[in-house]
Amino acid sequence: REILLEVRNMKKYFPIHKGLFGTKKTNVQAVDDISFYIYKGETLGLVGESGCGKSTAGRTIIRLYDPTAGEIIFDGADISSMTENELKPFRKRMQMIFQDPYASLNSRMTVGDIIGEPIDIHDLATGEERQKMIYDLLERVGLSKDHASRYPHEFSGGQRQRIGIARSLAVKPDFIICDEPISALDVSIQAQVVNMLEDLQEEFGLTYLFIAHDLSMVKHISDRIGVMYLGKLVELASSKELYEKPMHPYTQALLSAIPIPDPEVTHAKQRIVLEGDVPSPINPPSGCRFRTRCQYAFERCKIEEPVFQDMGGGHMVACHLMDGDKA
Ligand code: SF4
Ligand code: MG
């Protein structure tokens, strides 16, 4: 299979000033050295609690942020240090759908103009052709052309998400980052939006990076799933593997927290409670970043960072327990 996107040792640090009069300079290590790839036409799920760096990773990949380090290879081209001018042809191919469909749509613009904006920016069509594109897109996401003259506030959350999706499709992208696109929606609407995203993927040959804070939300749509904790990838495997044989203690805890018992998740009968919050990415724990919340933590975890290694068949895990070590 062909790889569409490859991320190599990507970091995104945000500099901040601390201390009296902000004299101390330090960094928020939002994304700290992650590597993975996505095949053409695949959906890679990316999960973790909020503050784990998932959205930052997504925004850095499509160069809404400049990476601090690492490479981002999109369809064979390293886009990580391209100038805005060089990026232009890639901007069109990479789109993002946001969590809050209301905040991400300009409330003063009609739905038609919202969808037409990327068409204008990228000079794709004008006049009647542009109008037809907008109508087609509205219909494709289950709305109608009569909706083009209305404003975002006249629509429900689910409909607004459809408008956001139509807008992202306007430029005929190859790759879409779906940043928690269903988290803010009613449970009854979530499945509809996920099904629509799957249909669109098939029809247009789209590749997705699907971000969620909850493993149950990505299970059905993802071919493979990556789990992030405090800026690091801790596990990555096919959806099936990850659900049936989670190896990292953090993944095991996330799976056990899925509220409705899933008959396929037999190992998680015992609920593992994750104590406390995710520590600050300004001063993350030494060694394994998960150690302050890990029930298996031992001496080595404090000193040495576990390597993200292939445990067989592409099932990647970063945990010292994988070496057979224990306290
Ligand atoms: Fe837990 Fe240690 Fe594994 Fe980290 S490396 S997940 S602290 S056992
Ligand atoms: Mg987020």
Automatic annotation (TrEMBL):
Residues 5-255 form the ABC transporter domain. Keywords: ATP-binding, Nucleotide-binding, Transport. It comes from the Bacteria. Pfam families: ABC_tran, oligo_HPY. One of its GO terms (biological process) is transmembrane transport. The keyword Nucleotide-binding applies. GO terms for molecular function: ATP binding; ATP hydrolysis activity. The keyword Nucleotide-binding applies. Belongs to the ABC transporter superfamily. This is Oligopeptide transport system ATP-binding protein.
